[in-house]
Amino acid sequence: MKCGQRFHCCWYVAMGMACAALLVSGEPTHVARCLAQSTADSASDEYKLAVGLYKQQRWALAAETLRQFVKAHPRHAKVAPARLYLGLTLVNLRDYQAAREVLRGYIADYPNSRELPHALYRVAECSYFLDDLKSAEREFQAFLRKAPRDPLGEYAYPYLADTQLRLGKPDKALAS
């Protein structure tokens, strides 16, 4: 049994025992509230665990926990940041193909997100590392157009220029 599964088992056993005690006491409405609260608390705890693993740079565990969270709680309030964290975690694992897919989905689903520039940059970076140069060029240009003052622009310009040189566009590379 994996760490995350053991946590879930212990959590559900404890909540089950608490709800059973309420049921024996003859309070069925409290049982329903208890179960609803335990599910909400469990989802928040799963999210906090995943973010904690991310912050500790435990990339493989963070990715697994974030995937489980997104799959188990697709309507949770924290699913958007969880998807972003998952994409960033996959970048750190150098799984650029999977990271790009997750981050493209995030961009499509949350076009007004405050974190959009970061996601746009990482998608372009993934395309660059995958040698998908046409996509990288288009995505770096989109990032620079949508977030011209973002600090990641300092990194985007050299990547864009290198991409354009490799695509045989030296004039555009000089202009970048």
Fold and architecture overview:
This protein is mainly alpha-helical and 176 residues long. The protein has a domain at 94-176: Tetratricopeptide repeat domain (Serine Threonine Protein Phosphatase 5, Tetratricopeptide repeat, Alpha Horseshoe), CATH 1.25.40. It contains nine helices and no strands. The mean pLDDT is 86.
Keywords:
Serine Threonine Protein Phosphatase 5, Tetratricopeptide repeat; 0% strand; 9 helices; 176 residues; mainly alpha
What is the secondary structure topology, with strand pairs?
Blueprint: H1 3-24, H2 28-55, H3 59-72, H4 79-92, H5 96-109, H6 116-129, H7 133-146, H8 153-166, H9 170-175
Helix pairs in contact: 1-2, 2-3, 3-4, 4-5, 5-6, 6-7, 7-8
